[in-house]
Amino acid sequence: MKDFTLKYYPIIIAFIAMLYSIGLGISGDFESAQYSAHWPGTILLFAIAIRQRRTS
After folding, report:
1. Are 50 and 28 in contact (CB under 8 A)?
2. Shortest CA distance to 13 belongs to which of 50, 46, 56?
3. Which residues contact 22 (CB under 8 A, 6 or more apart)?
4. Counting beta carbons within 10 angstroms of the beta carbon of residue 1, is it exposed (0 to 12), middle (13 to 18) or buried (19 or more)?
5. Using CA atoms, how far apart are residues 26 and 4, in angstroms rounded to an integer?
6. Which of 14, 22, 25, 53 could form a disulfide bond with 33, CB atoms 3.0-4.6 angstroms apart?
7. What confidence tier does 56 reach under pLDDT thresholds 50, 70, 90?
8. Rounded to an integer, what distance in angstroms lies between the CA atom of residue 16 and that of residue 8?
9. Alpha helices of 1-56 — where are they, by DSSP H?
10. Is it the case that residue 55 has pLDDT exceeding 80?
11. Taking Cα atoms as reference points, which of 45, 23, 40 lies closest to residue 32?
12. The pTM is what?
């Protein structure tokens, strides 16, 4: 379980951010939903960049 979490934590966090954005959209707060809709992609892009910079 620990290996899974260490490997896939950016995907889990991005999924939670996506659910948050969808929840805001369903509740009617469209401006906040559009703002937070960019978070999952940003999280995944930063995770890719960080993993490429690691030496191990």
Report:
1. no
2. 46
3. 33
4. exposed
5. 31
6. 25
7. low
8. 13
9. 2-27, 30-36, 39-53
10. no
11. 23
12. 0.82
